[in-house]
Each structure stands twice: as structure tokens, then as C-alpha cells.
Amino acid sequence: xxxxxxxxxxxxxxxDEIDLEPLIRQKFRKQIRxxxxxxxxxxxxxxxxxxxxxxxxxxxILSDINMPEMDGLTLLMKLKELKNPGLKTxxxxxxxxxxxxxxxxxxxxxxxxxxxxxxxDLEITIDKTMDEILLVRKSLEEHDQLISIQQDxxxxxxxxxxxxxxxxxxxxxxxxxxxYASMIPAKEVGxxxxxxxxxxxxxxxxxxxxxxxxxxxAAIFMAVSRTLIRATGLKGIPxxxxxxxxxxxxxxxxVSCMFVTVFYGILNTLTGELDYVNAGHNPPYLLSGxxxxxxxxxxGTILGCMEDFTFRSGKFHLKPGERLFLFTDGVTEAFNxxxxxxxxxxxxxxxxxxxxxxxxxxxxxxxxxxxxxxxxMPQSDDITVLTVHYAGRS
Length: 394
Known about the structure:
Layout: H1 3-8, E1 10-14, H2 20-27, H3 29-33, E2 39-42, H4 45-54, E3 58-64, H5 72-82, E4 88-94, H6 98-106, E5 111-115, H7 119-163, E6 177-184, E7 192-198, E8 203-211, H8 215-233, H9 239-253, E9 260-268, E10 273-279, E11 285-288, E12 291-294, E13 314-317, E14 323-327, H10 329-332, H11 343-351, H12 359-373, E15 383-390
Parallel strand pairs: 1-2, 1-3, 3-4, 4-5
Antiparallel strand pairs: 6-15, 7-8, 8-9, 9-10, 10-13, 11-12, 11-14, 14-15
């Protein structure tokens, strides 16, 4: 129990006996002086309802049953309509009035006291009821905090989704290449990201990344990583220099040993030449008429851990009609009820079936394949796919 909650919990005594107020104040003078109890008095049910509005901190109502204008049983019905779990009523009635006491309990009374009132018993009942109220109020506060956090996470998800390209086709005037991508976070916000941008008229930069961890910390690190790579990539510097620079920045800013795996490539849309760096990421697949195969690794490590690491680039020549399929390990590491991973074999089996399908269909069907495989199991990791189709210039 916190002092703030304790001091805000007032006790309202509802009874038509005029002499009851000075008696209670006398019997509980020490508790009142020590700010343990704070009493409010009303003389019937109607006045009690008015006092609830006047004193919103009332938590306990000690109510007589037999009163003029509005009796205690009717008051209980009105209080029930308020649906306030932090408001508890203790009814007071004659020892032999068990029928009314039973009715009161059925109408939501928390406890009862019999007349003549034993003030030691009353104090025990008040303390017990107050403990229950404070637990309820604390639970309600925590619930409100969780709702607030959930709202913040929903906003964060909207912001995160907004910084990822989501308008497709992104370059509708270009016929020499096409791009499609999608990301589904495992939680409200995620650590995966993708991006693509025109460095100049002939060069397309594209990137996919997977931050360690999940949730808000991963989402923040994801946003920083994506922004640094885009800002640096737009300068048009070679891919290995871009990764070297971004890695140094992330190593200086990284906290809690966070890191990110990245594949960053620059496609020359005029020639089909691809320069790329694989910084500890899953190797992309090349999809062509002759089948699928992985792009060679470049010996790169994750970003954000080794400041002095020097990245090396790889080169590949895309032929018109060929595609790149980039993904995060949320695809291959999705599990089913038998604790089996989706794996590369199933992914490759699917990719072999769709060499000429529209990019959008390829991506959406991969998600569908994964969902079908892991049906009934919670998504354990963010899932991201990025595809690039090179058509060449006629």
C-alpha cells in the first residue's frame, strides 16, 4: 500500500442516527489524527450518492440498511450501476436481520457488521476492506499504464511502418527494374527493416537488415541503422565504404551489445552489375530461368560490434529477367507445432516454383507458406522479404 493511495481512500458513513458521527470521530480520533482514516458522513442513500460526486476519493461505504428517503438496499443497487471495482460497501444492521443482510450481500456488499457495533471488529473490517480496495486501485492503475503503453506501441508501430517504403511499384516510370518488399513484426514493433533508393539515374541502392532482439529497443536501433545506411548510401560511395562508415557509427552509439545483420547492394540498372556487401546476413537467392542459387558471402561480420572491421564487397552480373530474393531469418526459423523449422529447403522448394511470378505474388505467397506451416504457433521473429527484378534496358 502506498501512502498516496492510502490517504486518498475516504470512508463514508451512511446512517440516519445523528449521534453516530461524533461517536465515530471520538472512537477513531487517533486514526483520524494520524491520517489513517478520513471520514465523510451522509444520513441516507440520496445524500450518499451526492457525497460520492463531491468526494471522488471515497473507497469504503459503511451503510445502515434501514434509512428514510433511500434505504441501504436501494443504495446498493445504485452503487452496483456505477461498476466501480474500487468502491466497497460494508452494511450495518441488527444481528437478527439476516434476511436483509443476505439480500445486501447478494446485491454486492463486500462485508457486514451487526449492531450493536463492536468498534474493534469495525476497525478490523475497515482495514481489511481498505487493503482490498488499495489492491484493486493498484491493479487499475497498472491496467491504465498497460493501456497507455499499448497505445504508445501502436503509435510506434505506425511510425515504424511509415519509415519503410510501402508504395509499390515505387518507380512506376521505370521499366528496367522493379522492387517489392514487406515486413511483419513479431511484436507491435520490430527490428527488421528494408529500404531502397535511387542514388542517381542509373544506380539503385537496396538494403535489408535484422537487428538483434525484439520490441522497442530493437525498433529504435532499427530506425537508427536504416537512417544511417540510407543517408550514407545516397552519397553514392562504394558499398564497402558505406558499411565501414555505418559500422563505426553504430559501434560508437550501440548500447546493450545490440547489433544488426545487413545485406546492402547497388544495382547498376544500365549494365546489370551488382556491387554488394553481406554483413552477417542470410545470403540472398538469385532466381533465374535455370533455377535458384545463393549469392556468395563477402566475409563480412555484423554491424555494431567490431569498430575496426574492414568490409569487402562482392560483384555479380544480373542478366535481364533475373531476380534477387532477400529475406530475414524469421522466414527460415518459423516453427510449427512439432518444433520443426520452416528451413531453407522449404523456402528453396517454393522459390523454384515461381521464377516468373509477379514480385508481389512471390512475397505474399512466401508469407502464406510460412503462416500455413506454422499454423497455431505464435510468430517468433520478425519476417521480412525484399525482391528486386532486373529487366534491363531495351
